[in-house]
From TrEMBL:
InterPro entries in UniProt: AAA+_ATPase, P-loop_NTPase
Protein's name according to its UniProt entry: AAA family ATPase
Region (Disordered) residue spans: 1-26
SUPFAM superfamilies: P-loop containing nucleoside triphosphate hydrolases
Sequence ranges assigned to domain AAA+ ATPase in this UniProt record: 36-210
One Pfam family hit: AAA_24
Coiled coil: none
Length: 323
């Protein structure tokens, strides 16, 4: 297990107080490139091949090991089991409360899956009990004001995105695209209607959260819309192999850097029997500096989903009050 370094603090030392976790100084550190985990989104219209491409991609990222699929598409992913040797474990979701995705990610992290695929993220926006449904449910206490209903739902959405980005492994999500039909000239010179994928069915701007975003069309062509990985920048791939065409160059880029601290080191430190209020605060600061406070895991006492930052605060406060 990775060893935790000593936290770097700035400014004068402050006596611990009830809100000590929110009183940390702002510390600049030398920038370093660390190895990282993939954060990928593939969107597309119905029949574009986003599920199969994402499965092959997840298989490549996992090195052929079993990975986790959180399935909202009524078993669509399972129809591909065994093709090209792909094997995975699936969790079928029947309701799409954003908080349920946080729970599913925490369970996947607890089980140790190195790769998780969410097929698809769109249901957590406009599916049953998704974010839009939640607004309808919450607006009643604000005089049926839908805009005010977002006061309760935006934190759910933000927590879901944080859980995806902080997952201690590779994350691939699919998203449905808003479909519009346009007339295009075919090879015979005749106009015919073609389904075109427009914006993804998720919160506007969600693409900013991912390292690589691609859009697939009905010809199974993948257009990379955004990529922090230079090898994939602005690429157009016809009937791509998710393993060799996407996972391989992506892993070469992700693995180029210093070895990062394993997030489980912070989880182990936070749950250690001999942890103290001071050691937990130090662990919090170190995880905070590495952007790992939202790392999802299951609460060791209740079994309910939580995140690293909230658990450390809870336990640290309890130990301090008991002293």
């Amino acid at each position: 297990m990775s060893q935790l370094g000593q936290p770097v603090r700035a400014g004068r030392q402050q006596q611990q107080s009830s809100n000590e976790y929110d009183e940390g100084g702002f510390t600049f550190r030398p920038a370093t490139k660390e190895q990282a985990k993939a954060r990928i989104a593939i969107q597309g219209v119905s029949g574009s091949g986003k599920t199969w491409t994402s499965l092959a991609l997840a298989n490549g990222l996992s090195g052929g090991k079993r990975f986790a699929v959180i399935d909202t598409e009524r078993g669509a992913a399972s129809k591909y089991v065994g093709i090209n040797g792909i094997q995975f474990d699936v969790l079928q979701m029947q309701r799409f409360d954003p908080r349920d995705l946080v729970k599913a990610l925490a369970a996947a992290a607890q089980a140790g899956y190195e790769v998780v695929l969410v097929d698809s993220l769109s249901h957590y926006w406009k599916g049953t009990d998704g974010a839009l449904d939640q607004v309808e449910k919450h607006k009643g206490k604000y005089g049926n004001n839908s805009f005010a209903g977002w006061k309760d739902v935006t934190p759910m959405q933000n927590d879901m995105i944080d859980a995806l980005l902080s997952y201690p492994g590779h994350v691939v999500v699919t998203m449905r695209s808003h479909t519009e039909w346009v007339l295009q000239e075919n090879e015979r010179g005749r106009k015919e209607p073609v389904a075109m994928g427009m914006r993804a069915e998720q919160r506007k701007g969600v693409e900013y959260e991912f390292d690589v975003v691609g859009a697939m069309d009905v010809t199974n062509t993948l257009k990379i819309l955004k990529s922090r990985c230079p090898a994939l920048h602005n690429q157009t791939l016809e009937r791509p192999d998710g393993d060799t065409d996407i996972a391989k160059p992506l892993l070469e880029w992700l693995n180029d850097g210093a070895e990062p601290i394993d997030p489980t080191a912070w989880v182990d430190a936070a749950t250690a029997a001999d942890a103290t209020a001071d050691s937990l605060l130090a662990t919090y600061r170190e995880a905070e500096a590495h952007g790992a406070l939202a790392t999802p895991f299951l609460h060791p006492a209740s079994g309910e989903p939580t995140n690293l930052g909230d658990f450390i605060k809870e336990r640290g406060t309890a130990l301090k009050n008991a002293a």
